[in-house]
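W.,

You were right to be curious about this one. When I first looked at the sequence I had no strong expectations either way, so I just let the prediction run and decided to look at it fresh. Below is the sequence, 405 residues in total, followed by the output.
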Amino acid sequence: MATKLTAPRMGEGIEELVLVKWLKQPGDAVEMLQPIVEVETDKVATELPSPSSGVVLETYAREGETVKVGELLAWIGKTGETIPDDSSRKKTKKSPKAKTEKENQPQEKMENSFLSPLVRKMVKENNLDVDVITGSGKDGRITKKDVLAFMESENLRIDSSQKPELKQLSSRKEEASNLVPVSNIRRTIAERMIASQRTSAHVLTVMEADLSRVAAHRAINKPLFAEDGVRLTLTAYFMKAIVAGLKTNPKVNASWNDEGLLMHSEINIGMAVSLGKQGLIVPVIKRADTLSLLGTAQKVNDLAQRARSKQLKPEEVRRGTFSLTNHGLSGSLFATPIITQPQVGILGTGSVQKRAVVITDADGNDMIAIRPMIYLSFVFDHRVLDGEGADVFLSDVVKTLENWH
């Protein structure tokens, strides 16, 4: 008996998702739990597994189309098996009748039923007339690709009755033809960065740390961790140092609330992972204070790998209480990271450099030595922390790194 693949609920409050790419096409063989389609929400990109073994009998959504939770995406069954009658979705290939029905819909119904929030936003921002855009989505629904294709066409038209400033769109044809679409994740990053700066009072404080002891400890333990299949990176040390700082400075592990500070009992540290041109995602290491260095390194490896291969689960990018971003991987010395709301702070780690520094020996004599140094950039919400409290936290992080044993 054929098995349905439907759009799953990807998290609390998420009612829609975007179908990014079909990994299997009708007629392709598929094993149970083998990835069959890549989808994306405003929080995470992931691959949906096949609910059974067999072949893909039919698909019911186009790449780039927004679908609602519970909607039919595909049928999986035996070769030649009859697909059960289900009128809730049309096949990927639309009939001319489906297009005609769309064109006959009243404008109000089309705006409410056929435009996803993203498409509605694009139409509004670019002052487009949806009546002249041909939809290629389900039931003639207008998709993001349809809007972009319309804007790139040579037949771009503007209603002469629109406001004068809207007519300027026709003179921007050449500019619109160079429009590069962005992913949902990239769009969400942009919206949240702006919203974060509007929400909290961002203040930066910077300190440097001598990583000599961390480097020595890592040199000894790196091959030992490798025997367990774990790559020991500096990120694991930064995580442990942050945990130590949060334990002694609990206000940093809190959230602003109009009624007061929400003090979190768990320490859940978000870890920024680069996705290349697509932007970044921040999986969360839950209860980081309960993990050893080995356990932390395992979590860092696992989450980073699955983030880049789009295997994260929605719950793995939620409930963070503090964040870490390693901007030094690209050579940056220090930066001003943006706070992940509603958290109080974020720590940025710069590039490790061997520099000449002044140290004091056991007899109190100053001398110059070469040490692996790093700048730590702590951006905090000034509504919650004053400069002194922020510096105390950052100083505790530095002390943990410099006195590693």
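Here's what jumped out at me. The first strand starts at residue 3 and ends at 6. And, maybe more interesting for your project: The CA atoms of residues 193 and 331 lie 22 Å apart.

Coffee later to discuss?

I.
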